[in-house]
Amino acid sequence: MQILPLENSGKNKAINISHRKKSPSFGSFLRYDSVARCTLDSMFYRENDALLSVIRAVERNFPKGAEILDFACSNGEEAISIFSQLKDRAKYFIRAFDISPEAIAHARAGIHSVFSGCFDSFILDNHAVAKKAKLRDLFFSVMEPVESPNIAINKSTAYFNFRDRNPEFTEKYFRVKDEHASAIEYRKGDIRSLDHIETQRPVGAILFRNAFYHLCNNKILEALQYKINLASSVDKREAAQSLVRKIYDKLDKKGVFAIGEHFKDNIFVADLNAPVEKTVRFAQSKFFHDKYMASGNVMFMKKSPLVEALEEGDRFSPIHYSAVEFLGRRFLFPTVWQKVK
Prior knowledge:
It is a single chain. The chain is α/β, with parallel strands linked by helices and about 350 residues long. Helix content is about 25%, strand content about 25%. It has nine helices and 16 strands.
């Protein structure tokens, strides 16, 4: 599959690029939270090249220790993935937040499932290839197997359909070992309240992966389906600028901020009130695809509002680019940014 670079301002100094392999459309944690009105999904070592870029930057820039703030943490599998890959775990503390009370309840309960056919199923494979075998070893350095719990971890039609259609389906359960249980703190929290969150040590990283599109109501596929720009109560550029200001204030110098590789975190349909000079017709954009020929007049943002906000004032610089898949092609986007001022 061809990978297409994005035009940028000439400040492309990314030191890492991850090429995302297509994985199943669901994680090893699947539920719908009717209170938070969102689907909860997670998996271990998701988008791990970018995650590892965050971890190594924190270790390099904060050798004496730091806090890592993980927002939209779901049931904690991302936080555990971070912790397991730290070289000197005692120096770092992870605070994990989610707006969903159900997600936080599951994170605190600490029972995690891994099942065959999903991205992180290599954890169940005693003969995993070298790179995956190393991750598997790191996983078992902080996790231990447990018996099947008396609660249903996954509540999703996709999960049950997949399980019932696969006669060789395997699922196992794990928990964090007691000696590591205090390394991660789980709290209900919203990244929009970042300025009210108290920390005890320098903040070396803030992660908000595959979640910004929920915050700014980026319904890109719906707009293409209905062939119109949908009305939204959220100004995407204003939401991005407000968020980045809070991230800048919270991070210590050389701290990093990470977004996800989901296309909705990187490609944005325009708001109805977006400035004309900031938009482009879908038919004239680099993202155009014949599948949505009839949607050519839908307006897209010329640049991700998050990228625009992060580039403003040269406060952040990208240190990792990821290949983001959209309509059958892949485009390079900056997904990890370092505070430079």
